[in-house]
């Protein structure tokens, strides 16, 4: 983002990162899926595709706002750079960014929780503990990756050319 432009975005990126981190760890520390409820189940918030899509859409709104705030309507000139023939591909890029952000977070957290839930139901005492520790590490890495990608997308929208 640059040394001058990062300060206004620290609260957004920090809050998103901490939110993802706490959500992921709440699912990694306690195997919520083991608890059976009559209607539904307990799980980490990032185990739901709606939560991860909402976080990705917040990031999309943030990088459109950053680009428009910094460069005005000349921000939309990036869609026809270097040639207008690339307009559909450049528009498609703005749809794939939130899609990849949401599916990456959702898929990794869901896979981790499913592995731990299966291992806890098969061998309840010793075997799941290393997988749960790996889940803690994976959860922290996913929070870092999501925050880094959000900052990179916002920084890219504020720069002159990509």
Characterization of this structure:
Helices cover 68% and strands 0% of the residues. It contains four helices and no strands. It has 162 residues and is mainly alpha-helical. The longest helix has 36 residues, at 87-122. It is elongated and about 60 Å long.
Count of distinct strands: 0
Return the structural class. mainly alpha
Element order, helices and strands?
HHHH
What separation lies between the terminal Cα atoms? 13 Å
Please count the helical segments.
Answer: 4
Question: What characterizes the major β-sheet?
Answer: none
Helical fraction equals 55-70%
Radius of gyration: 19 Å
How much of the residues is beta strand, in percent? under 5%
In short:
InterPro entries: ATP_syn_F0_a_bact/chloroplast, ATP_synth_F0_asu, ATP_synth_F0_asu_AS, F0_ATP_A_sf. The protein is mainly alpha-helical and 162 residues long. Helices cover 68% and strands 0% of the residues.
Strand and helix layout:
Layout: H1 10-29, H2 49-71, H3 87-122, H4 128-158
Q: What distinguishing features does this structure have?
A:
mainly alpha
């Amino acid at each position: 983002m640059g040394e001058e432009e990062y300060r206004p975005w620290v609260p957004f990126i920090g809050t998103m990162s901490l939110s993802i981190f706490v959500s992921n760890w709440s699912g990694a520390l306690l195997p919520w899926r083991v608890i059976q409820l009559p209607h539904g189940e307990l799980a980490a918030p990032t185990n739901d595709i709606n939560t991860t899509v909402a976080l990705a859409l917040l990031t999309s709104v943030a990088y459109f706002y950053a680009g428009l705030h910094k460069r005005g309507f000349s921000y939309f000139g990036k869609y026809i750079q270097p040639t207008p023939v690339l307009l559909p591909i450049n528009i498609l890029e703005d749809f794939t960014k939130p899609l990849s952000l949401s599916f990456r977070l959702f898929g990794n957290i869901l896979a981790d929780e499913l592995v731990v839930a299966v291992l806890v139901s098969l061998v309840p005492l010793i075997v799941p503990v290393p997988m749960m520790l790996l889940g803690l590490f994976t959860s922290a890495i996913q929070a870092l990756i999501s925050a880094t990608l959000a900052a990179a997308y916002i920084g890219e929208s504020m720069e002159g050319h990509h």
